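INFO batch 0412 | record 1 of 1 | parsing
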Amino acid sequence: MLKDLRYGLRSLIKHPTFTAVCIVTLALGIGANTAIFTVVNAVVLRPLPFQDAEQLAMIWTTRDTNQEQPLSFADYNDLKNQAKSFSAVGAASPLWNFTLTIGGEEAEPLQGMYLSASLLELLRVSPERGRNFTAEEDRIGGTPVAIISHSLWQRRFGGDENIVGKSIALSGVNSTVIGVMPADFQLLEPAAEVWVPLAQNQLAASARQVRLLSAVGRLNDDLKPAAANSELSAIASQWAGQYPESNSGVGMRVVPLHQQIVGRVRPALWLLLGAVGLVLLIACANIVNLMLVRSASRQREIAVRAALGAGRVRLLRQLLTESITLSLLGGGAGVLLGSWGVQALLALNPIPLPRYNQIRLDLTVLAFTLAASVITGIVFGLAPAWQTLKFDLHTALKEGGRAAIADASQRRLSSMLVIAETAMAMVLLIGAGLLLKSFAHLLDVKPGFVTENVLTMQVGLPNTSYSEPQKRAAFLKQLETNLAAAPEVASVGAVTRLPLMSALNNITTFLTIEGREVPAAERPEIDFRRATTGYFQTMGIPLLNGRLVTEQDVANNTGAVVINEALAKRFWPNEDPIGKRISTATSNGQQTQWQTIVGVVGSVRHLGLDVAPRPEIYYHTNTNPPFGPVVVIRTTGDPQRVISIARAKVRELDRSVAISNVNTMEQLVAQSVAQRRFGMFLVGIFAALALVLAVVGIYGVVSYSVAQRTNEIGVRMALGASTTDVLKMVLRNGMTLALIGVGVGLAGAFAVTRLMVAMLFDVKPTDLATFATVSVGLILVALLACYVPARRAMKVDPLVALRYE
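INFO prediction complete | emitting tokens
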């Protein structure tokens, strides 16, 4: 084996161009696979970093469309006592905005979560410093405590060894730090940097209609999710009878925690892994063709070795050793490219990927790369080696014998490889084309607001100093006035939640229409927001009918509200909704007083550009001023230039108020489509690489065919064939392979693209325009690849060719 290895290395060094081309081609294919597999391994394949993680499951409520929804505090408290399928149940709030103040320093915005004391226990995770919450702390009125992340401990506290026991102010509440989580800890929301006992949330005493908790349970030993679902269905039915106002028509189900965390990105990652797998196969096909050309020229060498006593098994081992050596060299270069690719993916990280802090090259990835390299070496080495060993010893040893000319079986193999390359490139190009067209349609969607020259920022009002609603309303009013006075500002408004936020953070209520009595279970669920009068003008949301709600309406308790066009069309399709009266459920489960619709505004795609607008109602912010309103500012110029002005205006009013999530609306729109853009970008890169490799393969086969048929072409031309006849002959041979490959690729794409349905928007997976465009484009590129060697064939001198013969 060592002799084979030394000989193989000498042979590769002797042909540096061939070796370099093969190594670069393999490095690109294996490197891309290494990078994507590193992500897939960390995010999808690796078990969750919790003890007995397979027993962990998310618990959701379901309603109407069977879409998963959070639980309310009341539902969670009942579930803990009634569900027997779980050894423990815990819960967490959505990502929450906090302000951190230490001493007299300026407030810093933080994102965190409220966790039940049982959650970390059932996950069997402990802080690396300090302790977990106690049941006494996890109750309404409990001692204010907090657990911080390792990154916050290092960043804000400089890794203070005595951090446990120190006091910090979270949103104005003095809390004691009781623990620091491990550096690699992530749960549901990777951006969280602080955790507070769940019962201390301001909505802990709210009604069952207010659903915002993500519940996690640890299944009993050997209990399957299906059995837990049966029990949860029975509990949900019991609740529907006990609490018809809030739980009628509401079900429950479990989802394995691993599936919940990675389910959203799993299809995209598998698609990318499949795409890079095709790229590697195309690269292998190219190298097989290169080695077939090289093997034809080595038949005399192999014949001499056979004449000296080498058996065919011995020769096969030698040739496979050379191909595997070449593949391992390409794999080594691929590991380097793959590590750079992983760093690039993490730097972009627009999705954002769950468990991203665990994405790194490890032994599993290196084993995958090694296996891919060895298998690749065998795949692209076996066929050429077998072809090389199919020789006639007498003919191969004859001086001047034409042993270097490929036989019919070798030409058939090369042709089949070109067809396969073209077909695989076709599948990738069609996939990329569908994603590109889908993304273009998504960008053409009218969101319902104007994105240009709009700056947004969230202000966090401390709970203690702004506990009274009048103070929150006064602060927001004064801030709007101060900002509007700046010459760079055209208008100002505020809202509780901006468009394009996550569906899990959406807040809904149940609608009752005066004069339309319906059972509680059939009351329609609608979205609602609170906004100032200036919000609609600032966001460019048109007023279609009536007027907007003013501060005077709230002061006089007129009950005036504004609805969107989607709600108006659904419930008053053929009449004017102005003056109609409605009622909604409050946070304590009661119905509000009758509210009068005074205006209709345009519908906004709040949950995403790919999600149709939902029926929605707008209250004025003064009806219940928020602690964390989002201020929107329409500027007269570049919004980035107004950021410093906005920060200064907030500090002038109160330095304890934190500013966070400063973005332009254009940035928020871009972030909302980042996952689709990223997937399209990567698949597009892989498709382009596949196209280049396929074209090179077509060019190589046609060029080699021309070189092998030089004498034949000379004879044809000597017998009267014109240059046009030669051109047609070469193009016909090359384009026949390309057209067959396109046909096979079309059939494959019709089957494969159906798996992309969830990734497409307003585009069918069998979109004929995309299929036709890609087909024509690939055929034209293949024609160009055939034309270059065909031009060379036209220049063959018959005398030179015949003299050579």
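INFO post-check: The radius of gyration is 34 Å.
INFO record closed
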